[in-house]
Amino acid sequence: MTHSPHNKLTTSWGAPVGDNQNSMTAGSRGPTLIQDVHLLEKLAHFNRERVPERVVHAKGAGAHGYFEATNDLSSYTKASFLAKPGKRTPMFIRFSTVAGELGSADTVRDPRGFAVKFYTDEGNYDLVGNNTPVFFIRDAIKFPDFIHTQKRHPQTHLKNPNAVWDFWSLSPESLHQVTILMSDRGIPATLRHMHGFGSHTFKWVNAHGEAVWVKYHFKTNQGVRNLDVDVAAKLAGENPDYHTEDLFNAIAAGDFPSWTLYVQIMPLQDADTYRFDPFDVTKVWSQKDYPLIEVGQMVLNRNPDNYFAEVEQATFSPGSFVPGIEASPDKMLQGRLFAYSDAHRYRVGANHNSLPINRPQSEVNHYQRDGQMRADGNGGGSVYYEPNSYGGPAQSETAKPAAYEVSGKADSVDYDSHDHYTQAGDLYRLLSEEERARLVRNIVGAMLPVEKAEIKLRQIGHFYKADPEYGRRVAEGLGLSVPEN
After folding, report:
1. 52 belongs to a structural domain
2. What integer pLDDT is reported at residue 1 of this predicted model?
3. Euclidean distance between CA atoms 92 and 83, whole angstroms
4. Is 200 an annotated catalytic residue?
5. What distance in Å separates the CA atoms of residue 137 and residue 335, rounded to the nearest whole number?
6. CA angle 269, 176, 451 (to 5 degrees)
7. Identified catalytic residue from 64, 124, 130, 195
8. Does the record carry rRNA-binding as a key word (predicted)?
9. 420 exposed, middle or buried (CB, 10 Å; 0-12, 13-18, 19+)?
10. What are the b/e assignments for 16-44, b being 16+ CB within 10 Å?
11. Which of 42, 44, 214, 349 counts the most CB atoms within 10 A of its CB?
C-alpha cells in the first residue's frame, strides 16, 4: 500500500518513519534494540499524553461560537466587544461538572461550570461562572476544604456524605446554593437547557472612567429542562457521556444552541446601602431592584476538531479582563483571580496562553520569556526588559483600572451580614408543591447515609430558619424532630 507524500508518517522531529508496525530487534525474536528511537519516542510520549486533570471541573465538554452584541451599553462599559449592536466576537465555551473525575458521569447532581472565553480585539476576556447565580461559600480561604468534602475519603476512596453535610451544616452560608443544587435544577436535562451566570459581582467602567457594579445572566433560548433523578441515574450507568454527546450531536446536526446575555447594573453608591452585601456570592440581587438589561446573543456553531487540544487544554481565569471590565471586592472572586491561572501554570504550563485554543486573536506584546513548552518565537532578539530605550512595548495609561475607595483594618474578618436564610427561604416559597416535594426527597435521600445525628439536626435547623415548613418536611423524612434552638 502506497501513500501520497502528504500522508507520509514522520517522527515528531519530521523524519519519515520506515516501519510503524514492527520494533527494531536483534533477529526475529529480539530482544528489542534501544537504538529504535522511533519506538522510544512513541512510548515516552504515550506515557505523557495525559496532563493532570483539573482538581475541579475535570469532566467537561466544549464548543466554539460567536457572541453578537444587540444593545449599546457603551454608557456603562468601554469593553470593545460590547461597543455597538451587531459586533460579533468569536468565543469558546466549556461546560463541566464540578466534583467528579475526568471519567465521571455527566448526569450527576452537581453544579455545572459555564466558562466562556471571548476572543476580543483587545485581548481575551474569560467569564468563568456556573449554572447557578450563587455559590456555597463566600471566602476563597474555605474553598480547598469545601472541595475536599466533595472528593473521596482518603482511606476508603469513596464519596463521603458525612463530610459533605458536616461542612454544609457548619457553613450556613451554603444554604442558598444547597437548596438550588437539591432542587430540580441540580440535574440539567442537557447542557443546552440550562442558564449560565457570572455569579460574582464585577465592575464595568466606561470611556469617561465612570463605574458601575454588574452581574451576568446567560438565559438559554432552548428553555430550562431538568432530568428526573431516576432517569439521570439510569443514564449515568448506560451513557455517562450523555451531555457531552448531546451537545456535540446538536451542533453537528446544525441545531445551534444559543443564550441571551443579560446584566444587572448597580450604581456604585448602592453597594453601601443595599439590603444584602452585593459582593457576597451566596446572595443574589433582586431583579425588581436591578432589572435585567439585554447585552447580546451567544451562539455555539462549531464542534472542536480535537478534544484534548481545545477542551482539555483550554484554560480560563476570571482574572483575564479587558479594558472596561474589572474585579469587585468579592472575597471569593479575589481568591479566584490568583488560583485559576496558577492552576493552569501547574496543569498545562507557564505558557498555556500561547496554545492555539487560548491564544488571543489580538496582538500580544510582553516581556515574559522562556519556560516549558514555549511554542512561539520567544520574543526573538527583541528587547526583553522594561523600562528600556529601544522602543519596546510600554504601558497604556488608559488601560489602568478605575480606582475605588477602600478602608478598614487589615484583619481576618467575615462579611458583615449573617442572614443566610432569607434568600434560601424565598427560593423555597417560590417552588410549586411538586417541586418542594422533590427538593425534600432529594435532600432526605442525600442525608440518610450521614452517620452522625448531630450533623443531620444541625442542617435541619438551617432549613427550618429558612422556612419552618422546609425544616419540618426534611426532619420528617429523616425521622427526626426539628431542634428547639
Report:
1. no
2. 47
3. 20
4. no
5. 12
6. 145
7. 130
8. no
9. buried
10. eeeeeeebeeeeeeeeeeeebebbeebee
11. 214
Q: Give domain status of residue 42, yes or no.
A: no
Domain that includes residue 76, residue range? 60-151+187-360
231: amino acid identity, one letter? V
- Residue 45 pLDDT more than 90? no
21 located within any domain: no
Q: What are phi and psi of 39, to 5 degrees?
A: -60, -45
Specify whether 57 is catalytic. yes
Residue 450 DSSP code: -
What would the mean pLDDT of 273-293 be, rounded to a whole number? 97
The enclosing H or E element of 429 equals: helix 422-430
Give the confidence band of 363 by pLDDT, cuts at 50, 70, 90.
confident
Residue 163 lies in a domain: no
Say yes or no: 203 and 296 in one domain: yes
pLDDT computed for residue 11 by the predictor: 84
pLDDT category at 5 given cuts 50, 70, 90 is low
User: Which of 57, 176, 217, 344 does the annotation list as catalytic?
Assistant: 57
Q: How far apart are CA 483 and CA 460, in angstroms?
A: 8
Indicate the average pLDDT of the chain.
Answer: 94
**81 & 204 share domain:** yes
At 483 the pLDDT is 84
Q: What are phi and psi of 356, to 5 degrees?
A: -55, -40
Q: Give the DSSP H or E segment for 100.
A: none
Q: What is the pLDDT of residue 4?
A: 52
* Residues 6 or more apart in contact with residue 75 via CB below 8 angstroms: 206
d(CA 373, CA 361): 20
Where is the domain boundary, 342, 360, 378?
360
Does the pLDDT of residue 61 top 60, yes or no?
yes
